[in-house]
Amino acid sequence: MLGLPALTPWSLPVIRRLVCLLLVLPALAAALPAAAGQYDAQFRQFLNSEVIPAARAAGVSQATIDRELAGLAPDTSLPGLVGPGGRGKSPEVNFQAEFRTPARYFRDSQFNALVPGGRRLMQKHAGTLGAIEARYGVPRRIILAIWARESGYGGAKIPYDAVRVLATQAFMGQRPDFFKGELVAALKILQNGDVSRSAMKSSWGGAMGQPQFLPSSFLKYAVDFDGDGKRNIWTSEVDTMASIAHYLSAHGWLTGRDWGYEVHLPNTISCTREGPDNRQKISTFVREGVKRVSGKPFPDHELNQPGNILLPAGRYGPAFIATENFYVLKAYNESDTYALFVGHLADRYGNNQGFAGDWKPMKETTRGAVRNLQERLQRLGHDVGGADGLIGFKTRRSIGKDQEKNGFFATCWVG
User: Which residues form the signal peptide (predicted)?
Assistant: First the structure.
């Protein structure tokens, strides 16, 4: 019998299911094209009734509108979509980088891979970086660290058609009004001629080019530093670096100050004192027993300047004294872990060493669970900065205050 195995009692049901599946698959495959185009008519109506009038009001010519929106269809494969008009159930949010053990986010292998490239670019563009620093006051190591984090110095694949992404997000994403504005901004960029439509690539969230600017940020902060007449953040390394520096300068970068310092924070200083609204002179922290992990003193020019405690993982991770410039980095991406990654990478271009403090094992959670915790803390009278499911400094210190109120040593972290 050709060596076929004997059928066991459970084989027949399995075979029946397989046969049914084989019969259904062709029908499913045939239905896919129709499903992919099911929103096309509604999408075209959305463009005609909402986007085109907004674009005209913003000064976008009819020729640009016709050229860039003709034949456009939504990309329903993008993650996070909820349905036309932004109405529908939000997608389930699973573990976020801010909730996971930070050791994963800050693993040494990432920094060891990025440091050599940054050092090479510092040498390659030494003169240009000097000119960028002179104009904007932002250190080259900070510029390169953001460039590394956003696109791996331009090596990351950024494959999406920016206009299609923005139009899809405006039509059926979670923030339709926001992305409608970004779509209009993208049309203005194309009208200005800085980039062609085929070269205007973005991430699935609409962030464009090597510094990952949204279109509105491009219009405000992108610069032509190489003098070719175009603000090119897609293929020009010089324009990319200068645009990052301009962004940080415009958001308040303080020339001459660093982003922050890793420190030993004694147990006599409660983690509930974290936050930029609890700034004091760094010299005052020194008198309270705060020391740099390197054993070196704080620079003299920093001692009379303000700083604040930063504990991205509460007492479960390294401690820092942050300056105002740390929060300028957060203006680029509203995340403590992002800003700390950038600052730490910038430091490692000089001395490639990891944090002195350990990221201890901690309880992982989800955004929904954090939101529930924030709502409970709010009912108890704590200011968590809004129940958004993100563990910012107000949530961390509220956790710590609740711990202290109940007689525990404050860790300022979940669990």
Answer: 1-36
pLDDT at 256: 96
- At residue 86, the 3 state secondary structure works out as helix
Name residue, tokens 């050599």. Answer: 116
Closest CA to 382 of 356, 350, 406: 406
Q: Name the helix (H) or strand (E) containing 51.
A: none
CA 282 to chain centre: 29
By CB neighbour count within 10 A (0-12 exposed, 13-18 middle, 19+ buried), where does 46 fall?
buried
How far from 235 is each of 164, 231, 350, CA to CA, in Å?
A: 21, 10, 27
Helix axes 140-151, 108-124, angle to 10 degrees: 120
Cα distance between residue 358 and residue 366, in whole Å: 23
- Nearest-10 Cα torsion for 244, 247, 253, 256: 40
Contacts of 164 (CB under 8 A, 6+ apart): 72, 73, 74, 75
Distance CA 196, CA 198 (A): 5
What is d(CA 181, CA 54) in angstroms, rounded to the nearest whole number?
A: 8
H/E stretch holding 307: strand 306-310
**Strand order from edge to edge, sheet including 260-264:** 280-281, 306-310, 319-322, 260-264, 291-292
Tokens of 260: 């922050």
CB distance 402 to 380 below 8 Å:
yes
Give me the average pLDDT of each 10-residue run along the chain (415 residues): 35 36 36 60 97 98 97 94 80 51 86 98 98 98 98 96 98 96 98 97 97 98 97 98 98 98 98 98 98 96 98 95 98 94 98 94 81 94 91 95 96 88
Q: 75, 70, 67: which is closest to 39 by C-alpha? A: 75
CB 274 within 8 A of CB 414: no
3-state secondary structure of 389: coil
Between CA 290 and CA 325 the distance in angstroms is: 20
pTM for this predicted structure: 0.88
Task: Give residue 120's Cα distance to chain centre.
Answer: 25
Q: Tokens representing 363? A: 């309880």
